Amino acid sequence: MGTLYLVRHGQASFGAEDYDQLSERGRQQSVQLGRYWAARGVVFDAVITGTLRRHEQTWAGIAEGAGLDTSAQPWPGLNEYDSEAVIRAIYPHELAKPRHAAEAPELFRQHFRLLRDGLAQWMAGTVSPRGMPSYEAFVQGVTSALDHVRTHHVDRKVLIVSSGGPIATAVGHVLGLSPERTIDLNMRIRNSAVTEFQFSAKRHTLLTYNALPHLDGPDFADWITYA
């Protein structure tokens, strides 16, 4: 049996003009995950990443922490959906920005309420967010990576670095979940969290989901982030 680790990128830059960039905390999370694996002798036979900067930067941090020089294979099918396009498909207005800190939590909640609704409609085929594939094509991009791992890396350790949407989609596919339950998984996945599959040439089996073993301890209590 092989082992496939799927890692969500470290904390990105939510609320900034360019989200697709790790924050300093995101870089620290990634390096710490690499250190955690190095201390346990985990070495990967293959690494596959989405092509977004936050994916590449997360792998760079893991490699730095673990002292690895493995090259990563880019896989565009592991890229995240465009959350702004999803929201605009159902709410074609400018989202309000907080004028002061007290407004931020409610506007944050509004963002994710709209995102959840937009995702449900995209999955159902009710809306077609601009510049995005159909949901069926998005799923195919994710499952093509899983099929590649099963076909080419049996009995090996493989790392995938991606985003919350593709990872939740992979888990939903393996478990046969409904789109609604897949959205639930997506909304709860944490930055730099590890999801683990065992796999054979025929199937993947879920072992763990959304785990943060590298941040287990009081020293890392404020390192746990979601966006």
UniProtKB/TrEMBL annotation:
Database matches in InterPro entries: His_Pase_superF_clade-1 (IPR013078), His_PPase_superfam (IPR029033), PGM_Phosphatase (IPR050275)
Organism for this UniProt entry: Hydrogenophaga palleronii
Phylogenetic classification of the source organism: Bacteria, Pseudomonadati, Pseudomonadota, Betaproteobacteria, Burkholderiales
Alphabetized SUPFAM superfamilies for the sequence: Phosphoglycerate mutase-like (SSF53254)
Transmembrane segments: none
Domain of life: Bacteria
Protein name: Broad specificity phosphatase PhoE
